[in-house]
Each structure stands twice: as C-alpha cells, then as structure tokens.
Design brief:
It is a single chain. The protein is α+β, with helices and mostly antiparallel strands. The chain contains 20 helices and 28 strands. Strand 9 and strand 10 form a beta hairpin.
C-alpha cells in the first residue's frame, strides 16, 4: 500500500479538520452542556486596588433559583490553594534570570478568590451559582460588597518608582525579579571607546489576545467516584490537570481535564485561571455540574494579557559602523499576580538578535502592578527585543549617514561563525541570516522603491520602506509523549500530549505517519485533549509542537518498525530480524515475502504462536524530554504610505521570508505567517490596553475602544519559506507559528519613520494611530522651524 504523493512531508495538504469546523461539527468549550448543570456568574472588583471589607449575600441568596454564593472566605475554609504558577518553565536552553542580590524571585499568591484585597479591575471576588445565567446575574446585582479603595498603580514605569503604591506588602518596590545578563563592565568599556552611540527609550504597549472563543468551562464532581472533570479549552490539558489537583489538594488521578476545539490562544490560555478551579470546586458544593462562559467584556478585564515592556537601550559602534556593544534595561509589567517571566527571559536573551555583537549587558526586571497578569503572548518577548534592536540600527544608520541595509550586512552573523554563542547566554544552532535578508529585499524590490516613493508624492502621500531581521527561540515545556497504534482494520491512531489551538495538528501530524508508513492520509487519526487518554505532554507554546511531535512520533515509529521486523522474522522462521527490510509501509523478507503494516498488526493480535512480547496491540511509544532549543529566523520588508494631513498609515506592501528549518506543510505555514503578521501589525498600528492612571480603570474594555486589524487594513502578503534544517531534531524543524509576529513591530515602525524622515521624525511610538502620527509630524515640523 503506497501513500499518495501529495499527502507526505513537505506537501501543501489542505487541513482535514476544517471540514468539521466549518460545518459546525466542532466542539468548543461553550458547546459542552451536562445534564442538570447550573450556571455561574462572577462578581468582579470595580477597583484597581481595594480592601474587601465585607460581602453581604443575604438578599441575593434568597432569590429563587440561586443555589449558592461563594466568597474567598468559603474557598479558604475548604482549603483551596493558590494557583501554582511556574513563572519560569525550566527549559535548559533558556537563559536563567536570578536576582543580582541573591534573593529569591517574588512569586505572588494567586488565590481562586481573594480574602483580603482585590488587586486589579475585573478580579473575581465572588461566584454566584444559579439555575440560569439570568438569575445568577440578578443575584450578583443584589450582592453588597463593601470596598475600601486603596492607592493603585498601573503604569509600568510608575510601578518602579520608590513611592509607588505597593501591590503586595511583602514585595518591596513591587519588584518580582531584578537580574543582570551579560558583562556590564565590559559593555561600559566598549561604550566608552565607541565612536558613535545611539539610544532609544520606548514602551512596547500592553495587549490582550482577544481570541475568537472567549474562555468557558464546565466543572463536574462525580459523587460516586469522587473525581472532578473540567471541560475547558486550554493550551495544555496535562498541565491543567496537575494544577487543578494542586489547588484542590487532591491526587492527580482524581482529576480529568478535557479540551476539544480551542478557538484561539496566542498564549492567553497556556496558564491556569481561577475560574477553572472554581467551577470544579463549586460543582461539589452544589451537587451539580457548573457551567461558566466568559463574556467579552469580562475577557477584556480578566484574561491574561501580553507585552507591556519598557526599554531603555543603546547601541555602540566604531568608526566603520561595526557594532561594538549593546546595553539595555528591560522593565516588564507582570501585573498583579506573577504568572510568567518567560517574555522577559526570552526577550532579554535575544537582545543582540542575528548581529555579531560580542559584548552586551541587559538588566531585566519584572514588576507587579494593579493590572491583570501578563503571560506569554505570541512569540513571547521576541517581538519586543527585535523591535528595539531594529529601531536602534535604523537610528544608527541615520546617525552615521549610511545605508540601513549596508549597516545590517556589515554586522550580520556569518555562516562560518555558527553555532554562535551570543553575549547574553544563548547559542544559536545554525542559519543563513544574510541569505534570507537578501531574498526579502529581492522579493520586495527594494531597489525600485525610490520610483514608488516619487509616484506616491505625486499623489500627495509620503511613502516609506522598512526592513527588520529577527531570530527567536523555540523551547517551551520540554517533555512530550506520543502513542502510535496500528489497527488491523487499516487505521493508525496517534495519541499525543500537545494540543492544537488552530495550528492544524490533525493534518501536519498525520503527514508524518503518511510519510513514514505510506498510509493514505484519510486513514490516520490524531487524538488529543483528554487526560484520561493522554498521559503526558506539553501544550502549543514557544513553537514546540511540530518540533517535538516529530521527535516523539518518530521514536514511536521506530519501535513499531523494530517490532514489525521481529514479528516477520518469527512468522517466517528467520534467524535475524535485521534481515527484514522496511520501506513504503511494507516489510520484506530475503525470499521476497512482503507484508504491510496492517498485516503485521493483524498477526500481532491474532497469532498465538508469536513470542509473548510480540503479541497484542501493535503500539509504539515515544516519550522524550528535549532540552535543545531551535532558533527560527527571517527577514521582513514593509512599505507604507502616510497621509501627513490626517496621520493615517496605509500598509501597501509586506514581504516575509521565514526560515522554519523544514516545512512539514507549507500551506499551513503560510497561513500561520499571515496570521502572525496581522497580529504584529495590529500592535504596531492600533492595539493597546489603556488604563486610566488615576483610577486604574481599563478604558479599552470593548471592541468599541480596542481596535484589531481587519482584512481591509492589510495588503496581500508575499510570504516565502526558507528551509535550513536545524540540527536540534531529526526532521530539522525549527517552527513557523511565531515568525510572522516577531519582526512585524519593528518593520512597520521602521517603514513609518522612513516615510516621515523628511519632517525630521526619528521615532514613532506604538501604536502608530493616526492621532499619534499626526501629532509626531506637527512636533517635528515645529522643531524644524525652530532650528531654521
């Protein structure tokens, strides 16, 4: 049996899951309904910081249809523990951040419901359980919460001030982490001898993920078995199971977590949420399943958010334009609860990017504030780092009066320098950085830009072009597991721990089986998302899924082939299994006898004459802990046109060349690049979580005030895949899900600044809204007049 050529590795196969999803046969979190379920509604703090004096539920609990109302006092009385956030995942390949004074990192408590204070607007302080959602909402209105408002701080820089309000009494200065990477003394020495230096102070603003499917959960406690079941779309059911068991104080075997379709994640669903624990716990208290569906306004207030990094950075150069050193202070706002240091860690370690900067130092600090926690958001930390570096290079080119592209060419890491140990503790595997940059310039017709600029001026528009190179790191949770079973009736099943949130795993993982066993694509099924089936594994984060899936499915396939050879050898009474060959899904003996893998599965299940170790279901297991990272890289070029009278920026062209190591499914990779670019453009031009400094209120808490890009805001992208196989895994996969986002911030702003250079504009902060661009032009014009 031979597989169709169009189904294997490297082929642009259309996603098999789309037929199910587009026809409404998928099962998202809010599609789960259990018999007899009650409905939950959360009462949330209207204050950014306030002492909870009392919660009076007397009138509310008397409403007909209300089953219970619980507060932090109830959860504490039942012994519910703090959410066990692990801010650093512990991957060996990631840089390690430790406090310079030797003290421990501050990981704040995160109780399911607080007992003392609410620490951001939207933090849940009570849960109402009722027969219907409408009744639960009415009861919530009748609950009287007495708050004692306290001073709050939401701004990143303000949270670091000595007199800033304290988010946690036992965290002096709101500091959760204060670390130093690189060699500060050597960096200072290089800056002292530099012929040129450029500086940048910038804030990479806070975002929210706004996935298509808001969070939802159904918790069920089985009184007969004492087991809890949680249905909730997440980034990792195995992790959710472990953490829910920890919060409830029970053995992991007493918890089951199920997630089927996950309607978008981008990192927002990779960590545990209080609501998930509360619906499971409340189910036991009321004796019924409890369902909760997050409304969009709630999501804006309470979802884990992304970015929010303030940076002061500088680049030192010699007379010839060689980069001597980089110095940076990175200040990460982790919000009220310390969910993750990963964006700070990964971004700080990659601050030198793909450039040969042998000396660098980065001070990396994480601060608590009265805002929702931040977590990894698509390409955590890397877009921020690349934005800073690429802006510094454009500033340096302007300072030196040299060509932006030539300055980059002069300083890119050469192939003969790889593997390359950067100055901040990471070692890049391999790559072709100059090659992808030149290809991007060619696809974008960089040389033809002056003519396009002149044509735009004739139409009254200011046209600019930008370039940004990038590198990122794929690591994430290091353990993954796959169980591959070959059934006699002609099907192959893969049970794997990592969980898709739209990446097309059902298709790309099946392509591996098709390639290795020559099985038609339609005969492969992928099973994920149920901890009663999936024993171990990580989620989709940090570009790990395809890279680790290739390793563990490959290990399982090797076991299956090895066992198959042994079975054939016993069946044909051969002395050595190695005498049996395997190719194109068939085992062939020296005498020409040929059996396919399903024949072998049938023999394993039916032949009682086989050795005991060879009888039974034909199963292979791959369970690996992979501590070697991969380093995707690439280059993007963007062109914009700006209307100076209104500040409106139009994206007119966008070219991306991304190296993924090896492309398992190019069609999916191109789609991921498109989505990633759109997210990066969204941050560059329009997205921002806006908090009023005085009150801490979120003023961008709906789609009326929080803008995301639409199709009409974007041009048709030109995307190309580069394939330089990574040595970090047998398939050579690097990953491709985050490459679109990583350079997008820098390349869009570089293009805008280029368009406005004639006005004397040297930098535009994000988001580059029409108002901000127009104001920047006015300030630059006034400065030009003053100087003349």
């Amino acid at each position: 049996m031979h597989a169709p050529l169009h189904d294997g590795i490297g082929q642009p196969v259309r996603r098999k899951e789309d037929a199910r999803l587009l026809s409404g046969r998928g099962c998202y979190s809010n599609d789960v309904n259990l018999a007899g379920q009650a409905h939950a509604y959360f009462i949330r703090s209207p204050h950014a910081h306030a002492r909870i004096v009392s919660i009076d539920i007397a009138d509310a609990v008397a409403i007909e249809g209300v089953l219970a109302i619980f507060t932090g006092e109830d959860t504490a009385a039942d012994g519910l523990k703090s959410l066990p956030h692990r801010p650093v995942l512990g991957h060996h390949a990631d840089v390690k951040l430790t406090n310079t004074d030797g003290s421990a990192k501050y990981i704040s408590p995160h109780l399911p419901l607080p007992t003392d204070r609410a620490r951001f607007v939207g933090e849940a302080v009570a849960i109402v359980i009722a027969e219907t959602l409408a009744i639960a909402k009415d009861a919530a209105d009748a609950v009287m919460v007495d708050y004692d408002p306290l001073p709050s701080v939401t701004d990143t820089v303000a949270a670091a001030e000595p007199d800033a309000p304290k988010v946690w009494d036992d965290a002096p200065g709101n500091v959760a982490l204060d670390a130093l990477l690189g060699d500060q003394a050597a960096t200072d020495a290089k800056f002292a001898e530099a012929a040129h230096t450029v500086q940048l102070k910038t804030w990479i603003q806070r975002l929210t993920g706004v996935p298509l499917e808001p969070r939802a959960a159904v918790g069920h406690y089985d009184t007969l078995t004492g087991r809890y079941t949680l249905h909730a779309g997440s980034g990792n059911v195995v992790r959710q199971k472990r953490e829910l068991a920890d919060i409830l104080g029970i053995d992991e075997t007493m918890v089951r977590v199920v997630a089927k379709e996950v309607g978008g994640n981008f990192g927002t669903r990779n960590a545990f949420y209080p609501e998930f624990a509360l619906v499971a716990w409340a189910s036991k208290r009321v004796g019924r399943p409890v369902k909760w569906n997050c409304e969009r306004q709630e999501a804006f207030l309470s979802d884990y958010q992304g970015r929010d990094l303030y940076v002061e950075a500088a680049l030192a150069l010699d007379e010839s334009g060689r980069f001597l050193a980089l110095r940076s202070s990175n200040l990460s706002n982790v919000g009220a609860h310390t969910v993750s240091f990963v964006p700070l860690t990964k971004g700080s370690g990659l601050m030198t990017s793909v450039y040969d900067i042998k000396t660098a130092s980065v001070r990396a600090r994480a601060l608590n504030s009265n805002t929702p926690p931040t977590n990894s958001y698509r390409s955590a930390g890397r877009p921020e780092a690349m934005f800073v570096v690429e802006r510094l290079i454009d500033l340096a080119a302007r300072e030196l009066g040299c060509d932006r592209v030539e300055l980059r060419r002069r300083n890119l890491i050469r192939p003969d320098q790889l593997p390359y140990a950067n100055a901040l503790g990471l070692t890049y595997d391999n790559g072709a950085y100059a090659q992808v940059m030149e290809r991007a310039l060619e696809l974008a017709d960089w040389r033809g830009f002056p003519a396009r600029r002149m044509a735009a001026r004739a139409r009254g528009r200011h046209r600019g072009i930008g370039l940004a190179n990038y590198i990122e790191i794929t690591s994430g949770m290091p353990r993954e597991r796959a169980e591959v079973t070959i059934f006699p009736h002609g099907r192959i099943q893969v049970v794997i721990g990592t969980l898709s949130s739209g990446q097309g795993h059902e298709t790309s993982f099946a392509q591996l089986i098709t390639q290795w066993f020559a099985v038609p694509f339609s005969q492969v099924s992928i099973v994920t998302g149920d901890t009663d089936v999936v024993a171990a594994g990580g989620g989709s984060q940090s570009g790990r899924s395809m890279r680790l899936a290739g390793i563990v499915i490959g290990k399982a396939a090797e076991q299956l082939v090895g066992r198959g050879k042994q079975i054939v050898a016993e069946m044909l009474q051969l002395n050595a299994p190695d005498a049996v060959s395997f190719a194109d899904g068939r085992f062939t003996a020296p005498d020409g006898t040929s059996l396919d893998i399903f024949d072998i599965a049938r023999a394993a299940n039916e032949r009682t004459t086989l050795s005991e170790g060879l009888r039974g279901p034909l199963v292979g297991i791959g369970d690996e802990t992979v501590q070697v990272a991969g380093y995707p890289f690439g280059s993007h070029v963007c062109e914009v046109e700006v209307d100076a009278d209104t500040g409106v920026v139009e994206l007119v062209d966008y070219v991306a060349v991304d190296d993924v190591g090896r492309a398992i499914n190019p069609l999916i990779l191109h789609g991921q690049a498109h989505g990633g670019i759109a997210q990066g453009v969204g941050q560059a031009l329009m997205e921002r979580c806006f908090y009023e400094p005085e009150s801490g209120q979120m003023l961008s808490g709906s789609f009326m005030d929080y803008a995301i890009p639409r199709a009409s805001d974007l041009p048709s992208f030109v995307t190309e895949i580069s394939e330089v196989p990574s040595p970090s895994n047998p398939l050579g996969v690097r990953a491709g899900g985050e490459g679109g986002t990583t350079p997008a911030l820098g390349v869009v702003i570089n293009a805008i600044v280029d368009a406005l250079a004639e006005f004397g504009v040297t930098h535009v902060e994000m988001p580059a809204t029409p108002e901000r661009v127009w104001q920047t032009i006015q300030v630059a014009r006034r400065n030009q007049k003053a100087e003349s």
